[in-house]
């Protein structure tokens, strides 16, 4: 099918009008957005490499939006899926050899591994930011480098405390503590009641890194400074380790070996009453009739605020990048622009059931965040998000340090007594210096 | 008669053709030439799929290549860094410990099993078949089963012992460094025994029964028959089997990756898992390759020990 600008305009306008008729979102805005910024090249087709979806609804909504784009423009979009951890090497190889997928939906600092192999999307991201209430700072940092946008931030995968309300109350707490000191007291009380907390100190890619970064940042510690110099050896890091040791003493035994799934299993089996996780924990409990009592007792809240005075968390982050070898960069930009249109993005966020937190502020008004109180803390993920390797630059060093579990190991070494806190910090410092050389 | 100009030209043209035909016919008629031709496809295959990747790996170890970006030659920097890296040395210790203990256990238990299966047992063939099951099951699946068996909260072993009143809280199988090491070794031994047992059983089947009978008539005890007849005749196959077993164990990856990913605090990290962690998720291909290359001397030592030690004629002849 040959696509010209007229057909594209007709198609997108018709689609936007249809969306306005049936969708719950503002028609005026949808129509206003119907004018496309980018005209796909003639005969264009695209291939997107994305991570394997965690939520079926999210995949269905993404695919439905993609089909609508194809219908409107005639541009075929093939979607390939790879497991979470395989996206990084595959995308890096594609960037390096200059063939393979045209776009990638990747994690964390991946675009910073090959920024010169990506299409400049400053025009697209500037437009999206202006049209949708602006980008959240943390997510914007994952997409821009030296004033240029190299990737389009897609979402944060929110992480929040999941706890059993009845157990918290039985431990003598009416409200969930909002600061780290109160949180420690709650964990101590839960342990005394035989309903302990548990956070992974093992090599859990997501949960382990989230927990370790929160421990460090909430106490004011930083792995590196803004210039990329290693500054982990600080009184703040020592305070974070001291706090982690006290917290670890209240955990269920065995958290040193926990991988990403272990805290879910222990929580759903009633072995622990407090952990941090994505909203998937709640939905896993909801799906199983036998676990309904746990689901009804489950509450969520944001991780407590430490001496640093504000909520700071890592959260997983995903971005969309277009490779320079893509023959149809305008089609790729048109595709992304289409997916971020209010009606489409809102549909996708809603279908993701609070698993994906918006990158653009307009979508904080999505009904998914108010439809269930359990979702509410996940709405703040993009706000509390700090970039990996804060306060240093994103790139191969920050990516390598996280993949090598430098912070996870530092806390695990110290809390298990394998090294003194000072030795654990010195070891982390040495390993970080290797990456940030 | 003198040759005419045409004949001379024909002779000139025919000479290279004859030489070509000659080379081909010489090659196809010579035993060595034919052998070379037959080996050529295999040699090309090995060159492309074995020598080239190995050479590339060695080269990458001398560069700072990252995933997605070519590196430059940095000499021994990766190795010097690894030399000062306690995590690397911990993985070297873990790998040697894991390989030694697991290989010895697999050999002892495998030989014992082979000797039992070599006797006239009821349902002998059935037992010989099911003994292969742990080897046949994909490693990832058996590793998943062990993951549950060693779970810090839901272990069947802990549950049984607690029900029997022998312990009052679950065993922290994968959380404590030493219990984690022993746990992963146990899983590896379980998986590796069938290979050793079945291979040694094949070796046992080749030993003529008459030798054992003759020794028995001469008054040899069962232990003496095993020590002086069976074991020496079995030594060549032990050498081969244990070489493979040591190589498989030394380069183990899947079991560790599924069970612990090298945790707790790198206590079960092997050189193969550390190499992967730094090269692929970490993106430091050069350093990962250097770790993989550092495995080669250990593997060569194992092969050399096997071929020049275990295959010594003296041992095979039962002499001390």
TrEMBL record, chain A:
PROSITE patterns cross-referenced by the UniProt entry: TAT (PS51318)
Subcellular localization(s) per the UniProt record: Periplasm
Keywords assigned: Signal, Transport
GO CC, any one term: periplasmic space
Identification of the protein by name: Carbohydrate ABC transporter substrate-binding protein (CUT1 family)
Top-rank lineage group of the source organism: Bacteria
Family (UniProt): Belongs to the bacterial solute-binding protein 1 family.
Coarse class of the protein's main subcellular location: periplasm
UniProtKB/TrEMBL annotation, chain B:
Signal peptide: none
GO CC aspect terms: plasma membrane
The entry's keywords: Cell membrane, Membrane, Transmembrane, Transmembrane helix, Transport
Biological process, per Gene Ontology: transmembrane transport
UniProt subcellular location: Cell membrane
Record membrane topology: Multi-pass membrane protein
Superkingdom: Bacteria
Pfam families given in the database record: BPD_transp_1
Main location: membrane
Membrane-spanning ranges: 34-54, 87-117, 129-150, 182-204, 231-250, 289-310
Every ABC transmembrane type-1 domain range: 92-308
Family from the record: Belongs to the binding-protein-dependent transport system permease family.
Descriptive protein name: Carbohydrate ABC transporter membrane protein 1 (CUT1 family)
Organism: Paracoccus lutimaris
Taxonomic placement: Bacteria, Pseudomonadati, Pseudomonadota, Alphaproteobacteria, Rhodobacterales
């Amino acid at each position: 099918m040959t696509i010209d600008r007229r057909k594209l305009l007709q198609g997108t306008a018709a689609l936007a009008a249809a969306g306005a008729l049936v969708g719950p979102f503002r028609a005026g805005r949808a129509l206003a957005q119907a004018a496309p910024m980018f005209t796909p090249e003639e005969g264009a087709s695209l291939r997107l490499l994305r991570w394997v979806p965690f939520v079926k609804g999210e995949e269905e909504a993404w695919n439905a939006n993609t089909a609508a784009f194809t219908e409107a423009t005639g541009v075929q979009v093939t979607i390939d899926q790879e497991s979470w951890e395989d996206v990084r090497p595959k995308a890096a190889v594609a960037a390096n050899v200059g063939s393979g997928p045209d776009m990638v939906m990747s994690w964390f600092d991946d675009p910073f591994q090959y920024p010169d192999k990506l299409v400049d999307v400053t025009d697209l991201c500037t437009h999206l930011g202006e049209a949708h209430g602006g980008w959240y700072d943390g997510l914007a940092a994952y997409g821009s480098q030296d004033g240029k946008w190299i990737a389009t931030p897609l979402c944060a995968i929110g992480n929040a405390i999941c706890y059993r309300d009845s157990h918290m109350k039985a431990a003598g707490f009416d409200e969930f503590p909002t600061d780290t000191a109160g949180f420690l007291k709650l964990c101590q009380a839960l342990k005394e009641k035989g309903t302990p907390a548990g956070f992974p100190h093992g090599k859990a890619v997501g949960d382990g890194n989230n927990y370790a970064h929160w421990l460090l940042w909430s106490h004011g510690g930083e792995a590196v400074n803004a210039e990329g110099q290693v500054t982990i050896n600080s009184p703040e890091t020592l305070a974070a380790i001291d706090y982690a040791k006290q917290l670890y003493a209240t955990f269920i035994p065995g958290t040193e070996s926990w991988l990403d799934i272990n805290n879910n299993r222990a929580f759903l089996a009633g072995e622990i009453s407090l952990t941090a996780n994505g909203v998937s924990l709640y939905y896993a409990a909801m799906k199983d009739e036998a676990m309904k009592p746990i689901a009804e007792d489950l509450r969520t809240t944001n991780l407590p605020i430490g001496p640093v005075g504000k909520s700071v968390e890592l959260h997983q982050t995903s971005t969309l990048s277009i490779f320079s070898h893509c023959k149809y960069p305008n089609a790729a930009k048109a595709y992304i622009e289409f997916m971020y249109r209010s009606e489409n993005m809102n549909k996708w966020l809603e279908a993701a059931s609070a698993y994906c937190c918006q990158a653009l502020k307009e979508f904080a008004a999505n009904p998914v965040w108010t439809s269930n109180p359990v979702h509410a803390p996940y709405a703040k993920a993009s706000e509390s998000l700090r970039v990996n390797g804060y306060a240093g630059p994103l790139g191969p060093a920050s990516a390598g340090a996280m993949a090598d579990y430098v912070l996870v190991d530092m806390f695990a070494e110290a809390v298990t007594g394998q090294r003194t806190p000072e030795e654990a910090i010195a070891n982390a410092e040495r390993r970080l210096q290797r990456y940030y050389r | 008669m003198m040759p005419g100009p045409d004949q001379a030209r024909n002779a000139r043209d025919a000479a290279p053709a004859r030489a070509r035909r000659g080379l081909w016919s010489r090659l196809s008629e010579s035993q060595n030439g034919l052998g070379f031709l037959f080996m050529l496809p295999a040699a090309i295959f090995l060159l492309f799929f074995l020598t080239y990747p190995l050479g590339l790996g060695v080269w990458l170890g001398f560069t700072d290549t990252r995933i997605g970006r070519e590196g430059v030659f940095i000499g021994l920097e990766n190795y010097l860094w690894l030399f000062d890296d306690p995590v690397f040395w911990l993985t070297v210790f873990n790998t040697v410990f894991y390989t030694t203990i697991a290989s010895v256990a697999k050999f002892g238990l495998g030989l014992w099993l082979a000797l039992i299966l070599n006797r006239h047992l009821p349902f002998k063939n059935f037992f010989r078949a099911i003994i292969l099951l742990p080897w046949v099951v994909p490693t990832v699946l058996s590793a998943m089963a062990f993951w549950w068996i060693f779970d810090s909260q839901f272990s069947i072993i802990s549950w049984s012992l607690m029900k029997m009143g022998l312990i009052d809280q679950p065993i922290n199988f994968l959380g404590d460094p030493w219990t984690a090491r022993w746990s992963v070794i146990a899983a590896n031994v379980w998986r590796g025994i069938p290979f050793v047992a079945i291979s040694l059983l094949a070796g046992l089947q080749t030993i003529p029964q008459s030798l054992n009978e003759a020794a028995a008539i001469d008054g040899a005890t069962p232990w003496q028959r095993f020590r002086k007849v069976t074991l020496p005749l079995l030594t060549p196959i032990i050498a081969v089997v244990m070489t493979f077993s040591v190589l498989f164990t030394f380069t183990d990856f899947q079991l560790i990756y599924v069970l612990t990913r090298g945790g707790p605090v790198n206590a079960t990290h092997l050189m193969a898992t550390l190499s992967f962690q730094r090269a692929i998720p970490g993106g430091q291909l050069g350093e990962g390759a250097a770790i993989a290359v550092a495995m080669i001397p250990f593997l060569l030592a194992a092969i050399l020990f096997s071929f020049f030690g275990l295959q010594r004629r003296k041992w095979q002849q039962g002499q001390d």
